[in-house]
Design goal:
Layout: H1 3-21, H2 24-28, H3 40-45, E1 51-55, E2 58-59, E3 62-64, H4 71-81, E4 85-89, H5 99-108, E5 113-116, H6 122-130, E6 135-139, H7 145-157, E7 161-166, H8 169-175, E8 182-186, H9 198-204, E9 212-216, H10 222-228, E10 233-238, H11 240-243, H12 248-258
Parallel strand pairs: 1-4, 1-10, 4-5, 5-6, 6-7, 7-8, 8-9, 9-10
Antiparallel strand pairs: 2-3
Helix pairs in contact: 4-5, 4-12
Keywords: Amino-acid biosynthesis, Aromatic amino acid biosynthesis, Decarboxylase, Lyase, Tryptophan biosynthesis
Pathway: Amino-acid biosynthesis; L-tryptophan biosynthesis; L-tryptophan from chorismate: step 4/5
EC number: 4.1.1.48
């Protein structure tokens, strides 16, 4: 069993447990439930930088990245830097995140927030909305076509945008549907952790122009972004590169200014 399979097994258990503790009615009573969401896809289309900056404390590929910042410091720093949106990791066991991180981010910034999570159930989409997210991530590697369709339709019914993550041609082909807003290509193989920008380059031409193209993982230089822009990418998700410094906001500011 690879790490992704393990995460999904744990996630399904976690969702069953959460459902037994917090009823849907409680999530729907959240002050954010009626809030109008902010469009990340619009921001990316109109941006010159396209940076989606990520709040991430640790990851399975790199045990600890940074625990020394508060969510408020990081997200405010990213907003001030001119990021188009912020990705907030909410998985606890493998990434050191939580839904409270999303809540704190929402209280701090007014740019789009992505709930970065391993979504396997509609309940998690209700959580995303209740805790202030503007969009969700769906990972093609762990979902069937029917699941992608029903989960993305449900997200859209709540006013949330959908970023679908793919890693290869097969995942992309099974996933293309009108209920997606953005298609992200993960440059990190989630099974082997190998990172290569070639994944983004190879799949770019197969992604229809109706979707905003996003390149994720392994982007650590201005050169990498300049290399990917001619392939039609409008969004670039960067986490570790900013978080591993002693001031994520400043790192993002310097990076975006150079762009």
């Amino acid at each position: 069993m690879n790490i992704l399979d393990k995460i999904i097994v744990d996630k399904k258990r976690e969702v069953i447990l959460k459902k037994s503790i917090i009823p849907v009615s409680q999530l729907e009573a959240s002050v954010f439930f009626e809030k109008k969401t902010i469009s990340l896809s619009d921001n990316l289309r109109n941006s010159t930088s396209g940076i989606i900056a990520e709040h991430k404390r640790r990851s399975p590929s790199r045990a600890e990245i940074n625990y020394s910042f508060t969510v408020e410091e990081v997200t405010k720093g990213y907003e001030n830097a001119g990021a188009c949106g912020i990705s907030v990791l909410t998985d606890g066991k493998y990434f050191g995140g939580s839904l409270d991180d999303l809540l704190l981010a929402r209280a701090t910034v007014s740019i789009p927030l992505l709930r970065k999570e391993f979504i396997v159930d509609e309940y998690q989409i209700l959580e995303a909305k209740a805790y202030g997210a503007d969009l969700i991530l769906l990972i093609a590697a762990v979902l069937t076509r029917d699941e992608i369709k029903s989960l993305s339709q449900f997200a859209k019914s709540l006013g949330l945008e959908v970023l679908l993550e793919v890693h290869n041609q097969e995942e992309l082909e099974k996933s293309i549907m009108p209920t997606l807003d953005m298609i992200g290509v993960n440059n990190r193989n989630l099974k082997t952790f190998e990172v290569s920008l070639d994944f983004s380059k190879q799949l770019a031409a197969q992604i229809p122009n109706d979707f905003v193209k996003v390149s994720e993982s392994g982007i650590s230089s201005i050169e990498a972004i300049n290399e990917l822009k001619p392939f039609g990418y409008k969004g670039f998700l960067i986490g570790e590169n900013f978080m591993k410094t002693n001031n994520a906001g400043k790192a993002a500011t310097d990076f975006i200014e150079k762009l």
